[in-house]
Amino acid sequence: MSFAHHTDHKIRFQQQYQNAKKYLIPFIADTMQLDQQTTILDIGCGDGGVMSAFLEIGCEVTGIELNEYKFAFSKENLSNYLSTKQACLIKCNIYEEQALTDLKNRFDLIILKDVIEHIPDQERFIPYLKKFLKPGGRVFFGFPPWYMPHGGHQQMCQNKLLASLPYYHILPKPIYIGILKLFGEGKGVITELSEIKDTGISIERFEKIVRTNEYEIEKNTAYLINPIYEDKFGWKPRKQLNLINHIPFFRNFITTCVYYVIRKN
Fold first, then answer.
1. Across the chain, what does the average pLDDT equal?
2. Full DSSP string of 232-265
3. Residue 23: exposed, middle, or buried by beta-carbon count in 10 A (0-12, 13-18, 19+)?
4. Alpha carbon distance 101, 239 (integer Å)
5. Where in the chain is the domain with CATH 3.40.50.150?
6. How far apart are CA 109 and CA 67, in angstroms?
7. Largest Cα–Cα distance in the chain?
8. Where are the alpha helices (DSSP H) in 112-224?
9. In this structure, are strands 133-143 and 87-90 parallel, antiparallel, or unpaired?
10. Cα gap 113→216, rounded to integer Å
11. Residue 95, Cα to own-chain centre: how many angstroms?
């Protein structure tokens, strides 16, 4: 029962763009200036929708994307900005020596929107980001906590029941994979969901990595209803109750998204 945005890159682009314009930019702008002097690195830039919103306000944005199809879509979607060199797209792994050579110490802001939960070895990756920041540079993270109802991204499933069923992604991996196979999910979906299960991240583990590696959490907000659900499903975004925010671990189960701006000390 995959939704339209899972297969139509134009829809995904518009959702990413609207979400960034209405929510990411105001959130980040509360901590730093965003203008023609701002250099941004968008890691896992997908179809380019987030980049487009920041390019529209004059920022200079470099996007990195490994997925061949999404990289092609972002080139198509951002062709006007690429032609003026306000935007740059790179298809490479951020750990490659060439990426470090070309991009080291260049950026005021790094954006990871719905990306960190897909990246293995986050304990290594998050401190590594410092290499690409200017002094005082910041990193924005937006991600769904692993334990939230659909933190396993199981909405990608073709089976309608599996796509809508909450929380079963937190079952032990052999049982989870067995359920996916039992209901006839394809090898590609099973592989991707299995990888997400290995890399899913909780609020507590994220904050521990950040503080252990001498970052400062400059701003954070938790959402009961993820802002991007407004464009995906027509649901009004709602911030998480303050009381819930102060209950460690439990908050992960009913928080669908968290936003953070961190800066290196």
1. 95
2. HH-PPPEEPPHHHHTSTTHHHHT--EEEEEEEE-
3. buried
4. 40
5. 4-147+201-264
6. 22
7. 53
8. 122-128, 160-164, 173-182, 187-199, 203-212
9. unpaired
10. 19
11. 18
Give the C-alpha separation, 73 to 4, whole Å: 16
pLDDT in the model for residue 2: 47
- The tens digit of pLDDT for each residue in 36-76 reads 999 999 999 999 999 999 999 999 999 999 999 999 999 99
Say what the pLDDT of residue 102 is: 92
Q: Average pLDDT, stretch 118-123?
A: 97
DSSP codes, 24-67: IHHHHHTTS--STT-EEEEET-TTSHHHHHHHHTT-EEEEE---
Supply the pLDDT for residue 3: 53
Q: What is the DSSP letter of 167?
A: S
Residue found by looking up tokens 């070309």 in the block: 102
Between CA 163 and CA 63 the distance in angstroms is 30
Question: H or E stretch including 133?
Answer: strand 133-143
The matching CATH number, chosen from 3.10.310.10, 3.30.70.260, 3.40.630.30, 3.40.50.150, for 4-147+201-264 is 3.40.50.150
User: Quick one: CA dihedral 197, 13, 218, 107, positive or negative?
Assistant: positive
H or E element: which one contains 223?
A: strand 215-225
Q: Which two tokens stand for residue 23?
A: 């929510």
How far apart are alpha carbons 119 and 205 in whole angstroms?
14
Contact call for residues 116 and 122 (beta carbons, < 8 A): yes
Q: What is the pTM of this model?
A: 0.95
How many of the other CB atoms lie within 10 Å of CB of 74? 27
Greater model confidence, 114 or 3: 114
